Amino acid sequence: MADTSGNALKRPHPEDDGSNSQKRTRSNNGSPAPGQGSAPAGKVDIERMVAEARAKAEAVRARLQAARGGATPPVPPAESSPSPAPPAPSPAMSRLEQMKARVAAATAKANAPPQRSEAPAPYQQPQSFDDEGLSKARGGLDVGLHPALLSDAAPEFRGSKSRQQSKGGRIPRGKQLDLSGPSIEEIKNNPYFDPSLDPKATVAKPRQSRQLIFNEKGKYVQQAAALRRQAQLEDMKRRIAERARQAGIDEDMEVEKSYLVQAPPAVEWWDEGLINGSDYAAIDDPANLKIDTADSTITHYIQHPILLEPPQEKNVPAQKPMYLTPKEQAKIRRQRRMADLKEQQAKIRLGLEPAPAPKVKKSNLMRVLGEQAVKDPTAVEARVNKEIADRKEQHEIMNQERKLTQDQRREKLESQQEKDAALGIHISVYRIDSLASGRNRFKVSKNAEQNKLTGICVVHPRLNLVIVEGGKHSVNAYRKLMLNRIDWTENPGPTTSDNNRESQPLWLSTEDDKGEPRDFSHNSCTLLWEGQAKTRAFRRWLGARICESDSAAKEALTRSKMENFWALAKSHKPAEF
Predict the structure, then answer these.
(1) Which residues have a Cβ under 8 Å from the Cβ of 62 and sit 6 or more positions away?
(2) Which of 133, 182, 454, 475 is the most exposed place for a label (fewest CB within 10 A)?
């Protein structure tokens, strides 16, 4: 299409004679003159291209028919001799037919179902999307298909990734993995299986149904009748006790009854739920045992009690510091004073404190004052004596400032007593033959109040009982008072509180009916019992309670549940020397 000289700017004219002339003749109307003779050379190329496109379309159509029907019709070779050419179409019409052929071929191949055969097909190289047939069907000038046409195509032609998933080892959509756990047989046969790792795969326990248990007719009526009889019996005992107390009957016989050991019951309370019977003879028959039955109190569950801190640990007193010898105390004091002196000297060097005046004494008088002592010894001596007196007065003032006031001493003592009681409550019980002396009664009550002790003093014509409770230190101090400090055999005579004899009985006086002093030589105080308790039984010190009968004494102690000590005091026999 270009000339031999290499000038391709203009196509050659058909009427050109082969010369290098680049001009052609013009018509009278101003346009090139129409060609004469045979058809133009450009039309030959278009016809050949149309023929090739039709041949390829026929080949694609034959291939699709073979895939549908199974028959493989002979495909005419692409380089066969062309048939007699029809009248040459115009260039515009040939391109339109070519595009229709390409679209028809691509649509037919996309809608064709995949070929299935029972026999394994021989290996064929997978046809790429850019094969010869489809590349021509994508449009002229290598232009891709319109998106509306691609929607009708099969998924395998939409992209390389979908073709790889369908041809590769991917899982089909219709099948799913089996994600269920192991079966019951596998769990039982596997000794290493842990059911706690997968609660859904554990073996389901069968649910046991409970049977309905109906109450027998008259069960609660009998229980109510038993409760009424018990209440009537308790009421009758209370009325008998009140009548006996009003009549002043001596209850010495009850003291002996309190020491009698009661007979054991037919069945202990902890065995009542395990035996179906009224006594232990029922255990001979295994049918009467409630151990493996459904209503048994024994189960396979283990009850773990709540862990509590040992109560005795909080009662342990604090560890005292180690005592130092006099030499060690002097050494520590010397080191402390030396450190204070160095600190003071450093402050003086820095100018933080003024230098102290020299400490003048009679021993260093001449060395400190020097010439002044020689000139006027009398004035210097008077000055030294005055400084010594001032230092002594300042020392006493400092001691008085450090001393606690009366209120501070009382608060400190109370705090120490509270700390002592917080370590544990101690109880001590004393038996005194006679408390007729008002001085001794005052000592007993006043020391109990001062030591922050709670309790009671029961005054009786035959014996006297003192019960105190509090901290260990306070109880020890009170014990020394009762057993060592008070002289119980002394008769101090009538006191100011004993002048009013008409308001108190004769046995509570230090003088007999004739006005002579009573003999207290056999009077004594004995420690009956001492121990620890969890809490206090008395809220405060109740003082001396005068009780003329045993019933009144027991009633005074019953409120605090201490009546057993009265029976202990009555049964006590003093030691014989």
Answers:
(1) 73, 75
(2) 182
Using alpha carbons only, give the angle 288, 290, 292 rounded to the nearest 5 degrees.
120
Q: Kind and range of the H or E element at 386?
A: helix 377-402
- For residue 541, the cross-strand partners are 455
What band does 204 get if pLDDT is binned at 50, 70 and 90?
A: low
Least confident of 71-85, 90-104, 334-348: 71-85
Q: How many CA atoms lie within 13 A of 405 on its CB side?
A: 2
**Residue with the two structure tokens 């109370």:** 414
Best CA proximity match to 168, nearest among 216, 137, 126: 126
Which residues in 176-193 are b (16+ Cβ under 10 Å) and which e? eeeeeeeeeeeeeeeeee
Residue 189, pLDDT above cutoff 50: yes
For 538, residues 6+ apart whose C-beta sits below 8 A from its C-beta are 454, 455, 456, 467, 469, 560
Q: Who wins on pLDDT, 480 or 90?
A: 480
Q: How far apart are CA 138 and CA 130, in angstroms?
A: 9
Cα gap 33→255, rounded to integer Å: 161
Helix (H) or strand (E) holding 233: helix 219-247
Q: How many residues does the chain have?
A: 577
The mean pLDDT value of the chain amounts to: 77
Residue 9 has what DSSP assignment? S
Structural domains of the chain, ranges and CATH numbers in brackets? 97-106+129-150 (no CATH), 258-297 (no CATH), 329-407 (no CATH), 424-571 (3.30.70.100)
Name the β-bridge partners of 455.
468, 541
Residues of the chain with pLDDT > 90, as a percent, come to 32
Say if residue 172's pLDDT is above 80.
no
**CA dihedral angle for residue 329, residue 334, residue 339, residue 344, rounded to 10 degrees:** 130
Lookup: tokens for 173:
């959509």
pLDDT tens sequence across 252-289: 555 566 667 888 899 999 888 888 888 898 888 888 88
pTM above 0.70?
no
Cα distance from N-terminal residue to C-terminal residue, the chain:
161
Describe the chain by its helix, strand, coil percentages, rounded to 5: 45, 5, 45
CB 510 within 8 A of CB 494: yes
Residue-wise pLDDT tens digits, 361-416: 888 888 888 888 888 888 888 999 999 999 999 999 999 999 999 999 999 999 99
Residue with more model confidence, 86 or 405 = 405
User: Which residues have C-beta within 8 Å of that of residue 232, sequence separation ≥ 6?
Assistant: none
pLDDT at position 314, please?
Answer: 74
Pairing of strands 454-459, 464-470: antiparallel
Place of tokens 């009690």: 305
Element (H, E) at 494: none
Nearest to 279 by CA among 287, 270, 268: 268
172 vs 166: CA distance, rounded Å: 8
Helix axes 406-422, 472-480, angle to 10 degrees: 110
Edge-to-edge strand ranges of the sheet holding 525-533: 525-533, 425-432, 464-470, 454-459, 541-546
Give the residues across from 465 on adjacent strands: 431, 458
